[in-house]
Amino acid sequence: MGNGSSMLTQYDIEGVQEHCSNTFSQQEIVSLYQRFCQLDRSGGGFISADEFMNVPEFAMNPLSQVVKQLLEPLFVPRLLRMLDGLNFKEFVLFLSAFSSRASLQLKVEFIFKVYDSDGNHKVSFNDVLDILRDLTGQFIAEHQRERVLTKVLEEAGYRKDSVLVPADFMKILGSSVLKMEVEVPVD
Amino acid sequence: MNKLNTSSSELDLDRPNIEDYLPSGSIQEPHGELRLRDLLDISPTLTEAAGAIVDDSFTRCFKSNPPEPWNWNIYLFPLWCLGVVVRYMILFPLRVMVLTLGWIVFLSCYFPVHFLLTGQEKLRKRLERGLVELICSFFVASWTGVVKYHGPRPSMRPKQVFVANHTSMIDFIVLEQMTAFAVIMQKHPGWVGLLQSTILESLGCIWFNRSEAKDREIVARKLREHVHGADNNPLLIFPEGTCVNNHYTVMFKKGAFELGCTVCPIAVKYNKIFVDAFWNSRKQSFTTHLLQLMTSWAVVCDVWYLEPQNLKPGETAIEFAERVRDIISVRAGLKKVPWDGYLKYSRPSPKHREQKQQSFAESVLRRLEEK
């Protein structure tokens, strides 16, 4: 798949399908490629964070905002960090967690990755607090957020200084149905 | 073009609730005591984000039809080649000649009329209107335009404004050949801008500049003055504010609907079999767009003049705008989307995100109280 080529060969499609562990059908991959080309306005073969933000429905999402950490004057993008500069294979891999064929484990692992902002496979109290802040904004006071989080953590048998690993997430989230599916329009 | 800034909050006060249109059925109201699981489970928000990445109604509005090649086999290919030869070698030069002839006739009549008849305003205006209608007819002929007008041609009365859906700048030409409207347009650079400053100015056209913030008030005042003026040409407004691909309509700006006069809707629908008349201003200049039209077979469209509407008692300007958008969309077979066309040039305001944050925050706090 060269940069800027607008035709996928059967070989390309199979490569992508393998990369995402067959979570998408070949038709869905073709549709996703059309969508990828539509989003990649500059035609560079990858989508920048800016190009994702051109979709108003996405830009309105609380997790897609660029958040300034309270303590560090750094911009810590959430979903945008995971999305910036993806080529098509990686784009499909990202979306594979949302396929109807994706296993529960795949979905839970994806959620873990969103929380794990520094990529060290550990989710700390502050990581969870960061996401909670994105989702609630100014509508809950910071100390109240910490209080709520501490309380539910302790009720679940963890401590404030506990560190969560994927297995913990699986235990917490895997017990009931996780509705995380997106339909790829196939014409 | 790439300067993206969040739209100012004052522009958002005139929007009906986008939430009413978006598919947010995935977020049901959870109940029961708050648990760790509820805070960790961000799947609804993630699903919304992924849904927007995979498909969104805003991008769909500005998608041009990709040309479908039908020349894929042994007998269709020579036919297509013949078609190309006819279009580029025969039709195109003929059309260029027609258009040039039209311009010669127009300019040689317009300047004398404009400068010599300065004393007789009424006669001059009437002649200028006729001449503009003439040059527009020449333009339409240069694309072999087949325009079917439906509905009673509205009488020229004061205190009325015309609104239409917008697909390309040629909408203006198609409508102008029947009636010399004064239109409100974005000021363009190049030869279009030159035409705007000279000929269109004399029709009473009004210019705006999207990128200037204070511009709105100035334009609103000019609109009001024009509509209430006695001898001005009827005003045509494209309330979408931007070109849309003729399958959808974006939200109408309320400016045209709070002038205190009757609104006459006009619906324009192009037949895509002949050519895609959508002017994708991001992809091509107006000149390229015109050339593309002049090398196609024909531009076929329908224009419907619809029943004039007035503000109903108790109706706000936004509701009035939405009602008229509904009338136009139904007539032209277009789907409505809840987006502001200006989102092409700016990001949505934080207000929408804040609404989501607020509802989640309230749900968390409420469940905290439940035992």
Features:
heterodimer, A: 187 residues, mainly alpha, two-stranded antiparallel sheet, 10 helices, 49% helix, 5% strand, globular, B: 371 residues, alpha/beta, seven-stranded mixed beta sheet, two-stranded parallel ribbon, 12 helices, 9 strands, disordered N terminus
Polypeptide structure, described:
Chain A: This is EF-hand domain-containing protein. The complex is a heterodimer of chains A (187) and B (371). Chain A contains ten helices and four strands; from the N terminus they run H-H-E-H-H-E-E-H-E-H-H-H-H-H. In chain A, strand 2 and strand 3 (75-77) form a beta hairpin. Chain A has helices at 10-19, 26-39, 49-52, 56-59, 79-83, 88-96, 104-115, 125-136, 142-155, 166-173; strands at residues 46-47, 66-68, 75-77, 86-87. Chain A has a two-stranded antiparallel ribbon. A two-stranded antiparallel ribbon of chain A has the order 2-3. With 371 residues, chain B is of the alpha/beta class. Helix content of chain B is 45%, strand content 11%. Chain B contains twelve helices and nine strands. The N and C termini of chain B lie far apart (54 Å). At the A-B interface, helix 2, helix 4, helix 7, helix 8 and helix 9 of A face helix 2, helix 3, helix 4 and helix 12 of B.
Q: Main interface pair? A: A-B, 59 and 48 residues
Mean pLDDT of chain A: 84
SSE sequence of chain A, one letter per element: HHEHHEEHEHHHHH
Task: Describe the strand arrangement of the main beta sheet of chain B, using strand numbers.
Answer: 1-8-7-2-5-3-4
The largest sheet of chain B is: 7 strands, mixed
How would you classify the quaternary structure?
heterodimer
Poorly predicted runs of 5 or more residues of chain A: 1-5, 68-76
In the predicted model, the low-confidence regions of chain B spanning at least 5 consecutive residues are 1-14
